[in-house]
Amino acid sequence: MGSTDGFQYRALYPYRKEREEDIDLLPGDILVVSKGALQALGFKDGDEQTPNQIGWILGVNERTKQKGDFPGTYVEYVGPVKIAVPSHRPRVQRPLPATPGASGCRLPEALEQGSPLPDLQEQFSPPEVAPPLLVKLVEAIEKKGLDSEMLYRTSGSELRQALRTDWTLGDLEPLDVHSLGEALRGYLQDLPSPVVPVSVHGDILRILQEIPQPENCRKQLQLALESPAVPLQNTLTLQFLLRHLGKVSQQAESNSLHPRALAEIFGPLLLRLPGASPELSPDFSVLFLETLLQAKELEPEQLPPALPPKPPKPKPSAASLANGNNAPLQDAEWYWGDISREEVNEKLRDTPDGTFLVRDASSKIQGEYTLTLRKGGNNKLIKIFHREGKYGFSEPLTFSSVVELITHYRHESLAQYNAKLDTRLLYPISKYQQDQVVKEDSVEAVGEQLKVYHQQYQDKSWEYDLLYEEYTRTSQELQMKRTAIEAFNETIKIFEEQCQTQEKCSKEYIERFRREGNEKEVQRILMNSEKLKSRITEIHDSKMKLEQDLKKQASENREIDKRMNSLKPDLMQLRKLRDQYLVWLTQKGARQKKINEWLGIKNETEDQYSMMDDEEELPHHEERTWYVGKINRVQAEEMLCGKRDGTFLIRESSQKGCYACSVVVDGDTKHCVIYKTATGYGFAEPYNLYASLKDLVLHYKHTSLVQHNDSLNVTLAHPVLSQPPAR
User: How many angstroms separate the CA atoms of 291 and 276, rounded?
Assistant: First the structure.
């Protein structure tokens, strides 16, 4: 067996194969690539050190022994290596996984039956990054907010007990962050084996004693935790928890959970000491976790970069391309030249899928450009490669110009080279029309277009509202079914106990009646026993059917959620366009009555949609009447004490980057968080659509908050600092 030159790369992000020729990646995987494979693609010496510029690379994953393509944007260069050239071997037949329930104790069944948690190796497998149960708890905690002073400091058993009876945990939304935190601690405590196995305790102790410098100590601890003695699932789980605890410690100003405090809570749960150990003090596990958390900069949880382009299908004939391919790039409306990524993000904000523009590549290399495409509510950056007068997203480069490339994909889907980008380049951000959103030149034409946009907005809103109602209804039904399954479990337990008691007692009576020759009584006892067993079987069957229904309905609910999210960008864009047309018409002096006709609003009724309505005298337009700045919950309640229902104020929230609305409902003050997201302000996804707090206040002047919370059947009617109307 000979050898050849090659290169090593280390995976930075997880990647699950999308095509047959791809391979899976987990962070830390070592990939080996033949030098010849890169040279065959036309790359020269030195190019191997910038894998993000290469695109898709053919190599072997040392951990899984898989051979195939992996994205260069997901790895970093390690260095050169000599690799063996193996003789040809037939592909090993891949064994099928065991049929669920056929043998072994799987996680769902184990937890539903109330048995202890399985080991981490049984709870998940790569490419998952942590046990699904743990991921769900952490996501719920982070969504609720990490600034509570009682986070991870309270005790309770209700949700913790649920871990042993319902592995899906149901809907966590109604639960507070303290219950969720206690459940997470209980989960770690109930694991049969700790996250940090006993086999590396000696190495950890030696590192903590011998290496005083914190940064070096932390690096050595990480190496010890990545050793073969630690199962991969344990390593991934620990990394996941460290990222979460890092986020918690960043909120230490509010929650007082500094690395030391977190280490005292979680150290003994992650690294459990095996009984009385003379060389290991109780502070051993605390010091271990504190060292890991005290990194100068705990690695942030980064989203993977955009995948490199996949090879396109064969070049279409010239006749199929639109005219204008030979037009200079500088004249293309979608070409913006040398602008920053931040400027691009601003121009594409709140635009629908398929919106795009092209700019010069940040590498400043002549002939290289970047296409930015809106897809799934996010911006996708796609590099346009250039070599020997040809352009394209990936090898082979087949287009004669950037204009020809963009024109082609305005008519064909980008899924030709990346299956995830199943859209065309639909809506160019034009550098010629940035200040001319309204393109019509007469009031009547603008009004008719406003009518079209408003109808489209109403149709989308109606569709969205139907989905939201369906989602809410099915979520409630899912929770009821989970509760019913728990009731079935209790019923089955009672019946089985009765069955065991009857069998125990009836055995003695059967023997007695048989000695007396009373066969009739014997048959009666046996018949009763069979009826009881039959009833248990019926309950089991009913429970199984309910579980199947639950699984099916949960899948349908996820699909509804996806459809809602897909509508959101269109809703925001239509709302934005409609409002811009309203502003234009108002500036041109269009009468309100005529605007109402275009909007389909009867003039004798209240106009909720027009920006320039007849309620300009409302105090809501003055922020000083309802915005009170940085006050706490108690001060807000004092300001609202004794006020009428619908009296409200907006204040800064204790949750960083958010605001809070305090409003009087049924004589009592209620509080709800206002989230500030990239798409706007709002009380909950996917309603975070309002450009400012004022827009939000004006909307909920007419719309009840009950759609977000059943106990908030009220509108924001009366700003707390407004003057009461004259009598």
Answer: 23
Residue with tokens 């959103």: 437
> Pairing mode, if any, of strands 369-375 and 647-652?
unpaired
Q: Give the predicted TM-score (pTM) of the model.
A: 0.34
Q: How far apart are CA 350 and CA 680, in angstroms?
A: 9
* More confidently predicted of 224 and 614: 224
Over residues 508-520, the pLDDT tens digits come to 777 788 888 888 8
* Closest C-alpha to 575, from 611, 623, 613, 602: 611
pLDDT, tens only, 696-727: 898 888 778 876 777 788 889 999 998 766 54
CA distance 585 to 564: 31
- On the question of a cis peptide bond just before residue 127, with omega within 30 degrees of 0, the verdict is yes
User: 38: which 2 tokens?
Assistant: 């890169």
Enter the tokens of residue 401.
Answer: 């110009």
For residue 137, the number of C-alpha atoms closer than 13 Å in the C-beta half-sphere is: 25
Other Cβ atoms within 10 Å of 147 Cβ, number: 19
Residues 57 and 395: their CA atoms lie apart, in Å, by 12
Give the pLDDT band (50/70/90) at residue 140. confident
Q: Is 15 helix (H, G, I), strand (E, B) or coil?
A: strand
Tell me if 230 sits within 8 A of 201, measured CB to CB. no
For the record, the structure tokens of 517 come out as 């020759």
Indicate the SS3 state at residue 90: coil
